[in-house]
C-alpha cells in the first residue's frame, strides 16, 4: 500500500484517469497543443519523469535522466481553509542534454510560478492536474548532461480529500482543523522517479500554535514563534490567485518547525496535530518517540515494547538502523492507509489501535522492516520492488522466528504460503510491478508473500551462515544507495560461490510451483529394520534445491532425511526401526509447493482476505467452495464461524465452530479458539452456564496460541458482550 517504506503507493496516476472539470472543446485542445509544441513535448519528446512507471528492464543500470538532489521548502498550512501554500526550491541534476523536464506534483496543488533561481527568469510550464499529475517545464535553453539547476516552484491548494493524489479512496495528504499530514507519496513536493530518487532537505512548516509537528529530522524539532508580516493593502488590477482568499482578519498565532536531513532520503513525510508526546527507551538502547492524539496515549505506548524488539532483531540480523537511535510513531486518521512508512517514522491510523481487534504483530514487523528495505536501501526503480516489499515481509517472518513462539511462527509461515499461492499464476515477481496495481490483492500475494517465500527458499539453498551474510552485506553495501534485483542476484551468487541464475530465473522471473509425488516400496532388512526406497517427482525441469522427507512409522516414530533434487525426480532410501506408514515431502514448508491440503487452504485464504475487507458474500462463497473439496476441513469451518460471528449471526457461528471441532482439527490451535468463540456465542445468546463450560474446555487444552489462555480466563470472569464490530483473529 504505499509505503514503500514509502514505496507502497506508487499508485500510477494513469491507472486512475481523471477528467478535467474545466477547459473543454476545440479551443482548449488547440491551446494545450500549442503549449506542448512550445515545450518540445510532442513527437517523442517525453521530457523527464512523468508517472513513476516501471517500463525499464530490470537489468538496466543506465544513469538517471534526472536526479533531485535537495529541497529547501517553506510551507504554510491553514487548517480553517484546509489549504497548503508552498515555495519549494528544488535542486536537480540532469542526466542527458535536454531543454525540458518533468516533475510529479499532487493534482490538488496549483502551480502559480516556476523560476530559474540562477537567472531569476520565469519559466514556461504546463501542469497536468487530472491525468499524469505532473508539471512539465521548458528550461528556455538546452542544458548539458551533468548540469545542476535550482528551480523555484510556488503552488497552493486545498488538501481535504484523496482528490489529486495517487489513490482514489485514501488520503495521503490532508490539512484540517484537527491537524494533518503530508506524505512523500502524496507528491506534495515536486519529485521524480517514485521510490527511487532520494534527496536531502530543509523543510520549514508553519502551523497554528499548539500543534506539534512530527517527522524525520537530524536536528531537534523546536517550535519557533512566527512573526507575522502586516497584510498588504489590496491592489488594483487582475491578480492570479492559487490559494485561499486573503482575509483582513488578523492571523492566529503560529509556530514554525524546520526538518533537516543531510543524507538523501525519500523526502517529505510529516504530520501535525495537538499531539501528546512521550519517549520510551528500549532495553536495546533505542528510543520510541510517540505522538498520540488525546485518549490514545496508552494504546500507542503498548506498541513501544514490540517495536523496540523489532528494531533490535533487525539491527542484529541486517545491520545498524540508519536513522539515529529513535523511531517516531505518529497517529494520523482513519481516512488514510493503516500504515505509512517514512524515514525514521511510522505513521498509523487509529483503527490499528482499536481495542476490539487482535493486534497484527506480523504487519507491524513488516512496516518496521521497511526502515531497512525501502528507506535505507532504496530501489533503483519500481521494477525492483521485490527487494523492498518481499524482503520486508520475509523480515517479519524472521522476527516471528527469533522473538515469538514456535507455533505462532509456523502458523505465520503457513499463512504467507497460502497467500503466496492465491494468485501465483497471474504473473512473475519481476513483472508484477509493471503489470499489477500495487494496492491489489494479486500484487500483494505475488510481491509480498511469494516474494517472502522466495527469500525463505534462498535461505535453504545457501544455508543460514551464507544467507545472513548475504543480507548483512547487501545492507552494508547499499544503505544510503539504490539497489536492484540484479544487484542482489549478483551479490548472492558471489557469496554462494556459484551462479544462482537458475534459482532467480525459476522463482523471480517465472511462474509455477512444484507439486510433489512420492512413489516408494518398503523392504525388510536382514537386521530386522525397514527400508523405504523410492522416488520423489515433480514437473519443474529447472528445479534445483535440497528437499526434506519425513517418514511416519508405526509406534509414532519418525525419521528425516534431506535429499538433493535437481530436475524432475530424485531417488531416496530411508531406514526405519518400525514399519513406515507415510512419507511427507517438505514437512516444514521450506519450499513453495502445492498439495491437496494446501490447495484447499488457498481457497480458504481467499475467503479470509474477503472477510478482512468485509466482503461477506464473497468470503462465504470461498469458504463453502473449500468445504466442497473437503467437508472435514476445520480451517474452513472455523473461518466460516468467524464470518457469521462478525455478522452477529451467533447461532450459525456456533454451528460452524462445532463443525470445526468435529473436523480434522488442523491447525491444532483451532480447538482452543473454537471453544472460546463458542463461549462468546453462548454469552451473546444469554446462555452463561454453557459459555462458562466452553471457556473451561479452552483452559483444559493448555494451548496458549495467540494468548488464548488469558482470553479464556478473561471471559470466564467477564461475560462476552456483543459489539457492533469485531475483527477476526
Describe the fold and architecture:
With 729 residues, this protein is of the alpha+beta class. The protein folds into four domains: 1-19 and 31-226 and 250-273, Immunoglobulin-like; 331-507, Orthogonal Bundle (Neutral Protease, domain 2); 517-585; 630-717, Serine Threonine Protein Phosphatase 5, Tetratricopeptide repeat (Alpha Horseshoe), CATH 1.25.40.10. The protein contains 18 helices and 28 strands. The chain has an eight-stranded mixed beta sheet, with no helix packed on it. Strands 16-17-18-20-19 form a five-stranded mixed beta sheet. A four-stranded antiparallel beta sheet has the order 9-10-15-12, with no helix packed on it. Mean pLDDT is 89; it is low at 1-61, 236-247 and 725-729.
Topology (elements, then pairings):
Elements: H1 25-39, E1 66-78, E2 83-94, E3 98-104, E4 110-116, E5 121-122, E6 125-128, E7 134-143, E8 148-158, E9 173-176, E10 179-182, E11 199-208, E12 212-215, E13 224-225, E14 254-265, E15 270-273, E16 276-281, E17 287-292, H2 297-301, H3 304-317, E18 326-331, E19 339-342, E20 345-348, H4 361-369, E21 378-379, H5 386-403, H6 406-422, H7 432-435, H8 441-462, H9 464-478, E22 482-483, H10 485-496, H11 501-507, E23 517-524, E24 530-537, E25 544-553, E26 557-566, E27 569-576, E28 580-585, H12 596-612, H13 616-629, H14 634-646, H15 650-661, H16 670-684, H17 688-701, H18 708-717
Parallel strand pairs: 1-11, 17-18, 18-20, 21-22
Antiparallel strand pairs: 1-2, 2-8, 3-7, 4-5, 4-8, 6-7, 9-10, 10-15, 11-14, 12-15, 13-14, 16-17, 19-20, 23-24, 24-27, 25-26, 25-28
Helix pairs in contact: 3-4, 3-5, 4-5, 5-8, 6-8, 6-12, 8-9, 9-10, 12-13, 12-14, 13-14, 14-15, 14-16, 15-16, 16-17, 16-18, 17-18
Amino acid at each position: 500500500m504505499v509505503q514503500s517504506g514509502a514505496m507502497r503507493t506508487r499508485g500510477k496516476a494513469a491507472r486512475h484517469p481523471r477528467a478535467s472539470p474545466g477547459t473543454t472543446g476545440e479551443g482548449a485542445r488547440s491551446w494545450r497543443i500549442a503549449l506542448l509544441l512550445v515545450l518540445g513535448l510532442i513527437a517523442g519528446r517525453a521530457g523527464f519523469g512523468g508517472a513513476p512507471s516501471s517500463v525499464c528492464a530490470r537489468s538496466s543500470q543506465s544513469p538517471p535522466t534526472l536526479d533531485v538532489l535537495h529541497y529547501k521548502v517553506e510551507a504554510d498550512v491553514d487548517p480553517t481553509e484546509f489549504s497548503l501554500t508552498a515555495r519549494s526550491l528544488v535542486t536537480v541534476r540532469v542526466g542527458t542534454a535536454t531543454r525540458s523536464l518533468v516533475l510529479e506534483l499532487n493534482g490538488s496543488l496549483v502551480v502559480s510560478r516556476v523560476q530559474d533561481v540562477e537567472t531569476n527568469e520565469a519559466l514556461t510550464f504546463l501542469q497536468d492536474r487530472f491525468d499524469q499529475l505532473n508539471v512539465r517545464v521548458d528550461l528556455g535553453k538546452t542544458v548539458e548532461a551533468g548540469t545542476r539547476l535550482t528551480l523555484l516552484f510556488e503552488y497552493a491548494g486545498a488538501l481535504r480529500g484523496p482528490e489529486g493524489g495517487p489513490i482514489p479512496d485514501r488520503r495521503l495528504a490532508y490539512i484540517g482543523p484537527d491537524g494533518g499530514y503530508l506524505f512523500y507519496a502524496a507528491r506534495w513536493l515536486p519529485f521524480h522517479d517514485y521510490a527511487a530518487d532520494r534527496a536531502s532537505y530543509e523543510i520549514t512548516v508553519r502551523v497554528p500554535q499548539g500543534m506539534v509537528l512530527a517527522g524525520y529530522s537530524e536536528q531537534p524539532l523546536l517550535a519557533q514563534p512566527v512573526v507575522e508580516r502586516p497584510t498588504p493593502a489590496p491592489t488594483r488590477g487582475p491578480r492570479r490567485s492559487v490559494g485561499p482568499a486573503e482575509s483582513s482578519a488578523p492571523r492566529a498565532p503560529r509556530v514554525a518547525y524546520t526538518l533537516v536531513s543531510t543524507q538523501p532520503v525519500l523526502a517529505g513525510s510529516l504530520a501535525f496535530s495537538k499531539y501528546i508526546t512521550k519517549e520510551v527507551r528500549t532495553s536495546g538502547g533505542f528510543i520510541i518517540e510517540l505522538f498520540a492524539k488525546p485518549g490514545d496515549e496508552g494504546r500507542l505506548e503498548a506498541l513501544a515494547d514490540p517495536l523496540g524488539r523489532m528494531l533490535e532483531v533487525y539491527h542484529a540480523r541486517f545491520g545498524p538502523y540508519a536513522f539515529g537511535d529513535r523511531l517516531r510513531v505518529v497517529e494520523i486518521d482513519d481516512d488514510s492507509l493503516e500504515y505509512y512508512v517514512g524515514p525514521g517514522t511510522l505513521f498509523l491510523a487509529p483503527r490499528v489501535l482499536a481495542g476490539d481487534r487482535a493486534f497484527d504483530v506480523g504487519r507491524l514487523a513488516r512496516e518496521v522492516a521497511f526502515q531497512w528495505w525501502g528507506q535505507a536501501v532504496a530501489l533503483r526503480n519500481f521494477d525492483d520492488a521485490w527487494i523492498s516489499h518481499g524482503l520486508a515481509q520475509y523480515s517479519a517472518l524472521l522476527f516471528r522466528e527469533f522473538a515469538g513462539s514456535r507455533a505462532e511462527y509456523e502458523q505465520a509461515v503457513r499463512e504467507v504460503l497460502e497467500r503466496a499461492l492465491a494468485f501465483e499464476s497471474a504473473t512473475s515477481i519481476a513483472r508484477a510491478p509493471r503489470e499489477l496495481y500495487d494496492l491489489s490483492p494479486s500484487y500483494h500475494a505475488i510481491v509480498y508473500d511469494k516474494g517472502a517465500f522466495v527469500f525463505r527458499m534462498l535461505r535453504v539453498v545457501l544455508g543460514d551462515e551464507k544467507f545472513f551474510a548475504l543480507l548483512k552485506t547487501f545492507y552494508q553495501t547499499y544503505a544510503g544507495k539504490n539497489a536492484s534485483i540484479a544487484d542482489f542476484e549478483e551479490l548472492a551468487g558471489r557469496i554462494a560461490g556459484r551462479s544462482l541464475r537458475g534459482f532467480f530465473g525459476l522463482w523471480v522471473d517465472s511462474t509455477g510451483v512444484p507439486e510433489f509425488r512420492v512413489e516408494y516400496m518398503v523392504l525388510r532388512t536382514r537386521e530386522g529394520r525397514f527400508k523405504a526406497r523410492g522416488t520423489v517427482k515433480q514437473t519443474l525441469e529447472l528445479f534445483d534445491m535440497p528437499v526434506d522427507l519425513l517418514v511416519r512409522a508405526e509406534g509414532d516414530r519418525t525419521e528425516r532425511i534431506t535429499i538433493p533434487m535437481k530436475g524432475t525426480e530424485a531417488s531416496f532410501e530411508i531406514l526405519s526401526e518400525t514399519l513406515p506408514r507415510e512419507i511427507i515431502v517438505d514437512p516444514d514448508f521450506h519450499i513453495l509447493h502445492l498439495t491437496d491440503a494446501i490447495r484447499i487452504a488457498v481457497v480458504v485464504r481467499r475467503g479470509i482476505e474477503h472477510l478482512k475487507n468485509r466482503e461477506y458474500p464473497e468470503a462465504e462463497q470461498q469458504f463453502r467452495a473449500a468445504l466442497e473439496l473437503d467437508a472435514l476441513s476445520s480451517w474452513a469451518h472455523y473461518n466460516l464461524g468467524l464470518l457469521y460471528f462478525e455478522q452477529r449471526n451467533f447461532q450459525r457461528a456456533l454451528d460452524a465452530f462445532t463443525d470445526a471441532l468435529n473436523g480434522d482439527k488442523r491447525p491444532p490451535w483451532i480447538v482452543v479458539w473454537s471453544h472460546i468463540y463458542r463461549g462468546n456465542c453462548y454469552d451473546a445468546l444469554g446462555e452463561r452456564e454453557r459459555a462458562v463450560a466452553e471457556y473451561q474446555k479452552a483452559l483444559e487444552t493448555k494451548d496458549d496460541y495467540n494468548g488464548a489462555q488469558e482470553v479464556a480466563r478473561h471471559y470466564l470472569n467477564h461475560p462476552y458482550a456483543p459489539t457492533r464490530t469485531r475483527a477476526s483473529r
